[in-house]
Design brief:
Keywords: ATP-binding, Cytoplasm, Kinase, NAD, NADP, Nucleotide-binding, Transferase. InterPro entries: ATP-NAD_kinase_N, ATP-NAD_kinase_PpnK-typ_C, NAD/diacylglycerol_kinase_sf, NADK. It catalyses: NAD(+) + ATP = ADP + NADP(+) + H(+). The chain has a 16-stranded mixed sheet that branches. The chain folds into two domains: about 110 residues, Probable inorganic polyphosphate/atp-NAD kinase, domain 1 (Rossmann fold); about 140 residues, Sandwich (Tumour Suppressor Smad4), CATH 2.60.200. With about 270 residues, it is α/β, with parallel strands linked by helices. Bound molecules: NADP nicotinamide-adenine-dinucleotide phosphate. The site of NADP nicotinamide-adenine-dinucleotide phosphate has 16 residues, from helix 2 and helix 4.
């Protein structure tokens, strides 16, 4: 079993990483920064976003597991004091009778961003957003190659099901169970009056649909892919659809989505 650890960089996470390596070596796990089987993120959900993008080119052959150092996360279910138990399970030495971990796979959103300066592809774990810098965004939204609406406002968010509990939730979007292969489009402060009109509701698109967002004026934009910001002055369009790839998480014990939602927002 080859593993790698990525931490948040704060004192506690760094210390936990050091002790993780020590315990892992004792259990015969092999540290491998190039081709790990499992990537462990120590910190919070934000740290998992970093881990995902660090290994973006190896997503099909990696499974992720998250340890949280603060509150229970959506991607991080292990507590710091449970690290010895996690390592025992990773090394297959557990006597709990549950040696075979479950792998759960969550949908992602893939993007093709077309600019005058070139075209690039990206994948998001949480969401893509397009936001204006110092002015109203004007964008045409097409669904499956047909005009849907002309958007005016602060921006547009396109999220994955697991990202639906993040920025999407703050925008009034629905929380979607990650077993549903879909993407969700939410508006960021759209202008709605007698002249300008948008749908105003979040839209959930199935796997086989796609949305194209066309920039409809010369405008300075910030495109975000999870925690990554890309300032852009020459956007032509962005195509978003449910990605062909999925992210895998190792589950050594159950971590039900609705329990996480309740813990995060109600408890
Ligand atoms: P950040 O601004 O430092 O943290 C954003 C917060 O979002 C953190 O509390 C983080 O949890 C939480 N989070 C991340 N993924 C989540 C998920 N799937 N479900 C529920 N909560 C989640 O930024 P960051 O750590 O670099 O994370 C980038 C993310 O921030 C973006 O992907 C976006 O979803 C989110 N964001 C939210 C808003 C908003 O709600 N208004 C605005 C901008 C960005 P941890 O503390 O466990 O890391």
């Amino acid at each position: 079993m080859r593993y790698y650890v990525l931490d948040r960089g704060d004192q506690l996470s760094v210390r936990l990483t050091e002790s993780f390596h020590k315990m892992a070596a004792e259990q015969g796990l092999q540290l491998d920064a190039e081709s790990p089987d499992i990537v462990v993120s120590i910190g919070g959900d934000g740290t998992m976003l970093h881990a995902f993008h660090t290994f973006i080119n190896r997503i099909p052959s990696i499974a992720f597991v998250g340890i949280h150092t603060g509150h229970l996360g959506f991607y991080a279910d292990w507590k710091a004091d449970e690290i010895p138990e996690l390592i025992t399970m990773m090394s297959g030495h557990s006597d709990s009778g549950q040696l075979m971990p479950r792998i759960v796979r969550y949908p992602l959103v893939e993007l093709e961003i077309q600019k005058k300066s070139g075209t690039n592809s990206y994948i998001c774990l949480n969401e893509f957003t397009l936001k204006g810098v110092g002015g109203t965004v004007v964008a045409q939204v097409d669904i499956n190659d047909e005009l849907f609406e002309m958007f005016r406002g602060d921006g547009i968010c396109v999220s994955t099901p697991s990202g639906s509990t993040a920025y999407n939730k703050s925008l009034g979007g629905a929380m979607i169970h990650p077993s549903i292969e879909a993407l969700q489009i939410t508006e960021i402060a759209s202008i709605n009056n007698r002249v300008f009109r948008t749908m105003g509701s979040a839209l959930v698109l199935p796997k086989h649909h796609h949305v194209d967002i066309y920039s409809r004026k010369e405008q300075s934009l910030i495109l975000t892919i999870d925690h990554i910001n890309i300032p852009t002055d020459d956007l032509i369009s962005v195509r978003c659809q449910v990605a062909k790839q999925k992210i895998s998480f190792v589950r050594y014990r159950p971590f039900p989505f609705w329990n996480r939602v309740r813990n995060a927002f109600l408890d």
